[in-house]
Each structure stands twice: as structure tokens, then as C-alpha cells.
Amino acid sequence: MKAAIYKSKQSLVVEEIPTPEPEPDEIQIKISHSAICGTDVHVYLYDIAPPNTVLGHEFAGEISKIGSDVTRFKVGDRVIGMGGNPPPGKESPLRKQEQFNYRLEGITNSRTRGYAEYTVCKEWEPLKLPDNVSTLEGALAEPCAVVTRAVRLSQQRLGDTVAVLGAGPIGLLCLQAAKAAGANKVIVSEPSEARRTIALELGADAVVDPTTQDPVERIIELTDGNGPHVVYECAAAKPSLQSALDMVRKKGNVMLVALAWEDVPLLPVDWAGKEIQLNTTFGSEPYDFKVAVDLIATKKFLLEPLLSETDTIKLEDIQKAFESLIKPSNQIQMVIKF
Predict the structure, then answer these.
(1) Is the pLDDT confidence value at 103 over 90?
(2) Is the Cα torsion angle 9, 13, 18, 21 positive or negative in sign?
(3) Which of 201, 217, 256, 334 is at a distance of 20 to 30 A from 89, taking alpha carbons?
(4) Which structural domains are found in the chain, ordered by start?
């Protein structure tokens, strides 16, 4: 089968490798679509993946083989490769290590993941897709689960005013999750005109261009001089965390969703007097996946605007895609179609 192999130093090479076969407690998935995640872009940019790793964790496809002990699935079932409940002792390091640090601990190269024609999973790992959710939409279930968790941890309440900083894939999904959770008004700050347009299409009540307006001043103005109850920081740009803390209202909540991989400037004296709560989130848990898939199925998450044909690529174009994604762009979401 074909797979994109990370060779190191920002190099992805498509090669023929053996097709993985399922063990008795595993299933084999023929991957249909695999989305390119911002985390993988950072792994590529900062060269933290071991050589010969097959990356990719946002994927969906059809079960092509099952192991002899598998009872939950059958050949032909459409699934995403994550979202199942791990048995005791099989939880990810994130959930069981007190000082887990993804950037410093790196990732494993022991398993072929989503940038390949086939992968294998333990029977408990995948989540079945509802009939009205396409495999293309299923490839975005993981980022939908990430923002679902972010909103659930943010202490957002019914009727709150909300700001979303950054309208890349995570920001646009966070906008929709905040709306689904009962936000009264959602304001999006984003420098790209194309992304601001999509944010409005997806239900943003107002958009701000931080290249022509002071986002702090404008968003406070749009919230009657008080600032938002909750700010979702989905940009990871150098000034955006400081901006989030500056604009949130007194005793408000800032949820750090995007992850900066470099130092960012902060001046606590500017906002500490507001007694702000700063929250963080990372990844998602099985229940977040269940909620996310339900929200996709009921069209609370509208994914079509994020999935234009221009951003669907072939596996052979993955190196070029990553080279473009480490630079500023107007692209929304890239998906590999097999």
C-alpha cells in the first residue's frame, strides 16, 4: 500500500509499504479521507516525529477486514479511527500521566496512522459513523471533538457573549460549538477575508479584522463595553493570548484552544485585576467524540464550508501541502482523498 513516510527535517515521502494485517482483536480500515491536522503541521515544522513515522489521526473509512475475536464491527462498516472507550490500562499518556507533555515526549512511530491507504485499530478504538454522516465529514470528527471538549470545559453558559480569536478549522468549529451550547452572540477575529466570510456564513454575529482594527477595543465595543464572557483563543499567534486576556470581561473565562509552540508575550498587570480564569484543553475523550458525531449528524456542525474541492488533495501531494501549511494562508482545511 501507499503511505506518506515522515523522513525527518520537514520531509514526507510517499512509498510502498506492507499493508498492515489485523490481529484477532483488531480491525483493518481502508481509509477514505484523512484530514491534515494543525498538530501534525507543528510536528513537521519542529521535526519532533521519529524518522519513518506515518502520521495522521483525523481519518475515516470502511472496515475491510476484522480479526477472529472482533464482535462489535463487520466488514463494510464506516468508522472513524478514534472515539472508542479504552479498557483499563489502555488510556493515552495524556489521560494517565500527571506531567504529560506532548511536545517534549514526542510521538510514537509504532503504528501506521491516517496518511496511508490502510491502517489497523484495536476493536475498542473506532467509532461507527451514522448513515447520514459521510466519510468526508467523519474525517473532521476529531477536531469537532476537540472543540466540543473546549466548550464543555470553558464554563460557557446559556446566553453568554463569546469571542473566537482565529478562524482556521478549529476556530470555525469552535464558533459552531459555542453557538450550539447557547451563546447569545459570537464575534470572530480573523485577518483573512475569506475566513471571515465563512465565519459569517456559519453563524458569527460579527467579525473583526485585526489588521485594520484593534481587536480588543472593537470586541469590547461590540459587547456593550463589558467584553465577552468567554474568549476562545484559537489562533496561537504571538499577540492573541494577551489580547484574549485583555478583552475578556471581569471574572470572565479564557479558553486556550490553539497551542503556541514559541514564547508569547504577556503583561499580567494589564488584566490580573479582572480576576480572570484561564483554562486549557488538549485533545478529547470518548464522550466528546460521541457528542461531536451527534452534532455533525444533526447539522449543528456544518462542515461543507470547510471542505471545498480546492482543499482536497491526493496523497502524492502531501509534501507540497505541508510546505504550504507552515506559511500564512487563506486555506481552511486540507483533506487527503484516497
Answers:
(1) no
(2) positive
(3) 256
(4) 2-140+307-337 (3.90.180.10), 145-280 (3.40.50.720)
